[in-house]
Structures are given as C-alpha cells and as structure tokens.
Amino acid sequence: MPHKRKNFTNEARKTRDLILDIAEVEIAEKGVEGLRLRDIADQVGIQLPSLYAHFASRKELLEALADQLMDELIAVYEQLDGLPPREALLASADRTIDFYVAKRGYARLLLADFPAPYDHSIFNKTNVKIGRVIKIINQSIQQGIAEGTVRDIPPDLFLSFRMGVTLFPLFMRGNSEQKEMVRDPEVIERIKRESNRLLSLYITPS
Q1: If 0-12 CB within 10 Å is exposed, 13-18 middle and 19+ buried, where does residue 40 land?
Q2: Distance (Å, rounded) from C-alpha 140 to C-alpha 125?
Q3: pTM exceeds 0.85
Q4: Is the dihedral of CA 162, 167, 101, 8 positive or negative?
Q5: pLDDT single digits (tens) 110-169
C-alpha cells in the first residue's frame, strides 16, 4: 500500500521537491526496481500526467534524484572544512555513513547504479558535482602531503576506496538477499570503526 503523506505535508514546498523526497523514501523501502511513478503521484496527490509535467520519464526522475544526492553529499564534505587534512579524510567515512543511514534511498540508488556502464549511469550528468567532491578531497590530500600526514593518493581512487569501505559493508551486513541496509546501531558503529582503520592504513605515508 502507498505510504501516507503525513511526513510530507509542508504545502510551501514545491511539488517537484516533494516528488523527489517521496521517491527517495520509496527507494529506501522498495529499492530502485520497486519504484513506481504512479505510487509517487498518489502520495503527492496528483494525477500521473501531472507528475510527467515535472519528470518526463522514470529515468529523468532518477537522474534528478542523483543530482540532488550529489548536492547533499557536497554539503557533507564542506562540513569537514577546517579540520586537519588527515582528520578530514578519516571523518569523511563517518559522515558519509551517517548520510547513507539517514538517506537510505540514496544509498540504495548508489548501490543499484554501481555496476552500470558509464553511458547508462544516472550519475553521468553530475560530472561537475562529482568533480567538486574530488576537488575537496584533493585539497585535503595535498595539505596532508605537505604536512607529512597523508601519502600521495589520486583523489578519485580515495573516493572509490572510501565508498568501498562505507557503502558496501552497510548492505553486506544487512539483508543481502533483499538488498536492505543494516539497521543495528552497534553494527553501524562497528562499520565506522573498521572503515576508519582501513582508511587510516590507506592514507598513511609508508
């Protein structure tokens, strides 16, 4: 059954933003493969043709959600500004895990898109924003190199490695058959500790 609208009753919010918020929740609970535009339209309180006035297709909706994800992920990284470079890189693991746990739909979206060829990825229109994240990471790496606290690592490889030690364990220790994330707070804290240990080994100068 469709979920109630009670969590999305702020009438001042734009319909487009409301559609995206509901889509994220739907993906969190049903996965990308379970996302149905009609269910979203029902929850927004509009007819399906009205939803198509905002998003011409399911893919366009997913691309807009990917774009919004990147905006929020950039904000996560910007919050690390001012930390010493090594601490900032390590803290990025904890902050992104918190982000995935708070926005499970985003996490499932990333996981579902991971095997997609670049030409078919819903993130291939977010290159500028991905580049911004990489630039923020690279600033910390370069500062850390200058201080002798971080080894020379390509920032895109750091981002890939960090994704591997944060996103994937959240699903591997959840219900892997249903592709659901772990919910146990103790397990999530353990994943944070392990990801920090692995990242520390990865960035430490030899």
Answers
A1: buried
A2: 25
A3: yes
A4: positive
A5: 999 988 887 889 999 999 999 999 999 999 999 999 999 999 999 999 999 999 999 999
pLDDT digits (tens, 9 = 90+) for 23-47: 999 999 999 999 999 999 999 999 9
Token pair listed for 138: 């690279």
Task: Please spell the DSSP secondary structure of 28-63, one letter per residue.
Answer: HHH-GGG--HHHHHHHHTS-HHHHHTT-SSHHHHHH
Residue 83, by phi and psi: left (phi above 0), alpha (psi -120 to 50) or beta?
beta
Query: Which residues, in sequence order, are CB contacts of 52 under 8 Å at separation 6+?
Result: 37
Task: Name 175's bridge partners.
Answer: 180
CA distance linking residue 52 with residue 89, whole number of Å = 41
Locus of tokens 């249903």:
178
Residue 116 DSSP SS3: coil
Is the CB of residue 95 less than 8 Å from the CB of residue 79? yes
Q: Quote the CA–CA distance of 136 and 134 in Å, as a whole number.
A: 5
* 8 A C-beta contact, residue 96 and residue 152: no
CA-based max dimension of the chain: 60
Whether 112 contacts 33, CB under 8 Å: yes
- Would you state the structure tokens that stand for residue 17, as one six-digit string? 């933003």
